[in-house]
Amino acid sequence: MHVNAAEGFNDRVRRTIVGTLPPSIEEQGAATNEIARSVQQAAGGTQGVSNNIGQVTQPPGKPAVPPAR
Fold first, then answer.
1. Residue 48 to residue 32: CA distance in whole angstroms
2. Cβ neighbours for 52, distance < 8 A, ≥ 6 positions apart
3. How far is CA 44 from the centre of its chain?
4. Above 90 in pLDDT, residue 5?
């Protein structure tokens, strides 16, 4: 009797894992992609701020030279 109960429990655990993991992995991938996009946007914004600071700190009469990309 105990063997059948253990097998039934193992089967339920196995089905739960199989039904739960793939969607969780997919959600994790989507979250990781969103984080990567956000970091890329932040880097672009930081670059823009850096360029603006560079232009503001130029001495009067000296043309601002944009940084090489």
1. 25
2. none
3. 16
4. no
CA-to-CA dists, residue 3 to 7, 8, 17, 27, 28, angstroms: 6, 9, 21, 36, 36
Q: CA 29, 35, 28: angle at the middle one, nearest 5?
A: 20
pLDDT, tens only, 7-61: 888 888 888 888 888 888 899 999 999 999 999 999 999 998 988 888 877 777 6
10 secondary structure, DSSP code: H
The residue type found at 51 is: N
Q: How far apart are CA 62 and CA 43, in angstroms?
A: 27
- What would the DSSP string read from start to end of 13-64? HHHHHHHHHHHHHHHHHHHHHHHHHHHHHHHHHHHHHHHHHHHHTSPTTSPP
